[in-house]
């Protein structure tokens, strides 16, 4: 079994903080899997063994959860993960054309990463933004009402600007169209990597 010292001290401290929030250590499994992804870019065998050791469970138990959820990536992904919804609402409003435009501009088919390890494209099931279909996420930050040309612009922008933080509101302003409804609450925090921007796991302000 791999020793936990493979992780940085900062990540281990965050892991201990997360574990302390739960009455049972094993309940911290899912957030620790995100920490493992943040530490190494994706879930490695060593990362999952570290999670198992920290939680006092077996690597097989960790893998049984990690392999069930598509958002836990066990293969390397790019710095920017573009997830294009192709479920029914988005499909009816042009997601096939949108995905094709994103794939073409990124130079990779869905499910693959470009050679620079900058952009991964994937096709996903409903991301809960059906009212603003077709919807796309970059590092799980959502933008609604995206047409194929805006999808291309989004890829070009990621390549050129290489933003440190991906913020949904900024994506919507730059590349979005019709939204499902107005959330009315400005959001200046976003994702710092290809994993969701949960508070203890990687949220940052736009200026940070
Ligand atoms: S069908 Fe695409 S967000 Fe729901």
Explain briefly what this protein structure is:
By secondary structure, the chain is α+β, with helices and mostly antiparallel strands. The protein has nine helices and seven strands. The protein folds into two domains: 4-66, NADH-quinone oxidoreductase subunit E (Arc Repressor Mutant, subunit A, Orthogonal Bundle); 80-205, Glutaredoxin, CATH 3.40.30.
Report on this model:
The chain is of the alpha+beta class and 208 residues long. The chain has 2 domains: 4-66, NADH-quinone oxidoreductase subunit E (Arc Repressor Mutant, subunit A, Orthogonal Bundle); 80-205, Glutaredoxin (3-Layer(aba) Sandwich). It is 41% helix and 12% strand. The protein is built from 9 helices and 7 strands; from the N terminus they run H-H-H-H-E-H-H-E-E-E-E-H-H-E-H-E. It has helices at residues 9-20, 29-40, 45-55, 59-66, 88-92, 95-106, 148-161, 168-175, 199-202, and strands spanning 80-85, 112-113, 119-124, 136-138, 141-143, 189-191, 203-205. Strands 2-3-1-4-5 form a 5-stranded mixed β-sheet. Strand 4 (136-138) and strand 5 form a beta hairpin. Helix 1 (9-20) runs antiparallel to helix 2, helix 2 (29-40) packs antiparallel against helix 3 (45-55) and helix 6 runs parallel beside helix 7. The longest helix has 14 residues, at 148-161. It is globular, with a radius of gyration of 18 Å. It starts with 8 loop residues before the first helix and ends with a strand. 39% of the residues are buried. The model is unreliable at 1-5 (pLDDT under 50). Bound molecules: FE2/S2 (inorganic) cluster. FE2/S2 (inorganic) cluster is lined by residues 85, 87-90, 126-130, 133, 135.
């Amino acid at each position: 079994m791999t020793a936990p010292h493979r992780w940085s001290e900062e990540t281990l401290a965050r892991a201990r903080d997360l574990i302390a929030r739960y009455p049972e250590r094993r309940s911290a499994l899912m957030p620790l899997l995100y920490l493992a992804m943040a530490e190494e870019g994706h879930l490695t065998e060593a990362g999952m063994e570290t999670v198992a050791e920290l939680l006092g469970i077996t690597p097989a138990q960790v893998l049984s959860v990690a392999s069930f959820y598509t958002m836990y990536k066990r293969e390397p992904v790019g710095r920017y993960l573009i997830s294009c919804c192709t479920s029914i609402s988005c499909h009816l409003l042009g997601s096939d054309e949108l995905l094709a435009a994103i794939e073409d501009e990124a130079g990779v088919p869905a499910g693959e990463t470009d050679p620079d390890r900058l952009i991964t494209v994937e096709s996903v099931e409903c991301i809960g933004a059906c009212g603003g279909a077709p919807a796309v996420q970059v590092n799980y930050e959502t933008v609604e009402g995206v047409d194929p040309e805006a999808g291309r612009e989004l890829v070009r922008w990621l390549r050129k600007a290489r933003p440190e933080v991906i913020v949904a509101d900024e994506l919507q302003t730059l590349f979005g169209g019709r939204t499902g409804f107005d959330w009315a609450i400005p959001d200046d925090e976003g994702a710092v990597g290809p994993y969701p921007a949960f508070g203890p796991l990687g949220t940052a302000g736009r200026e940070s």
